[in-house]
Amino acid sequence: MKKQICLFICIILLLSGCGRLETNDHVEPDSGQDSKNLIVVGLSQVGSESDWRLANTRSYRETFTEENGYYLIFEDAQQKQENQVKAIRNFILQEVDYIVLDAIAETGWDAVLTEAKEAGIPVILSDRFVQVEDDSLYTCWIGSDFEEQGRQAGKWLKDYLKKKGRDEEIINIVTLQGTLDSTAQIGRTEGFRQVLEEQKNWTMLEQQPGEFVQAKAKEVMEYFLKTYPDIDVVVCENDNMAFGAIDVMKEAGKSFGKKGGIIVISFDATDAALEAVKRGEINADFECNPLLGPLVDENIKKLEAGQEVEKIQYVDETYYD
Ligand code: GYE
C-alpha cells in the first residue's frame, strides 16, 4: 500500500486549491526523496483548544517524522466537524496510506468513513471515539477510559468529603462540560454521574458546556456564580476550563480549593494544572495521557508488517491531589 512520495507530491500540487495543507515541518520533499518509501499519514486534529491538545499535537508531530519513515499531512479542524470531514475527503483524494482521526464529536461519521473504507484506507481513531453503524469503518481506537476518569473523580470526592466530616451534608455541584458529544465529555459526565447517583445528599445544580476552552468556561462560571449562591463543588471536564473557573472565582472573591470554599475537580493533569494542584487551587486532577503519537505509530508499524491490532486500546492513567 505504500506509495511513492513523488506520486504523492504531484497529487498534493494538483489538490492544493482544495484545502489548506499544513505539512510536517520536518519533511521538505525534494527530488532526492523520490525513491523514499515514506508512509503517508493524513491526520485530522480537533483544534488547539487546550494545553492537552497542544501536547497531543506535539506528540504526533514528533512521531510522524521522515526519520521515522513518515510523511505527515496535518489538518487542524479548528473545532469544526465539517472541517474534519473535508480533511478526510482530501486525504482520500491524496491516497494517503493511513488516516488518523481525533474526532470532535462521536456522531456523524458513517458517510465519510465509508468513503475511506471504499478507498481502502485504514482509519485509526486516536483520543476520541466515533459511533458508527459498522465498526469495520475504523481499524482501531487508542485513547483514555474517560468514563473511568469520571468515576475516579466521583469516588475521590466521596472520600474527600468523608475525610472532612461532610459526608452527610447537602453538596451542591456544577459541571463545566467539554464539547458536547465528544468522547471525553460523554465519558467524564457519565462516570461522575454514576457515583453521584448513589449519593443521596449530592445535587447536580447544572451542567453546561464550556467547549474545553478557558474563555468559554469563564462565561459559564460567571453564570453559575450569579445563579447559584451555594456551590460546593465545580467539576471542570478539562484543565483549561478549571483555569477559567479559577479566574472567575478569584475575580468574585470566592474562596476555593484547599483553603476551603468551592472544591475544584479537573481532568487532564497538564503541567500547569499540576502547579495549580500544588498551590492548592485545584483539589484533584485526573490524568489523561496526550502522548498518543508513539502508540499510533506502533499500530501502523504492526499493520505494515501484516499483523493484527487490538480494536480497542486503553492507555494507563492515574490522578493527583
Ligand atoms: O481533556 C481536553 C481536550 O479529548 C482528552 O480534549 C481530550 C480532551 C482533553 O481539548 O483538554
Overview of the molecule:
- The protein is of the alpha/beta class and 321 residues long.
- It folds into 2 domains: 5-143 and 290-316, Rossmann fold (3-Layer(aba) Sandwich); 146-287, Rossmann fold.
- The protein has 10 helices and 13 strands.
- It has helices at 5-15, 51-63, 81-93, 110-118, 146-163, 183-198, 214-227, 239-251, 271-278, 293-304, and strands spanning 22-23, 39-45, 70-76, 98-101, 123-126, 140-143, 171-177, 202-209, 233-236, 263-268, 284-287, 312-314, 319-320.
- The strands form 2 sheets. A 7-stranded mixed β-sheet has the order 1-3-2-4-5-6-12, sandwiched between helices.
- The protein is elongated.
- Residues 6-35 have low confidence and may be disordered.
- The protein binds beta-D-fucofuranose.
- Beta-D-fucofuranose is lined by residues 49-50, 52-53, 127-128, 184, 212, 238, 267-268, 288.
- Residues 49-50, 52-53, 127-128, 184, 212, 238, 267-268, 288 line the site of beta-D-fucofuranose.
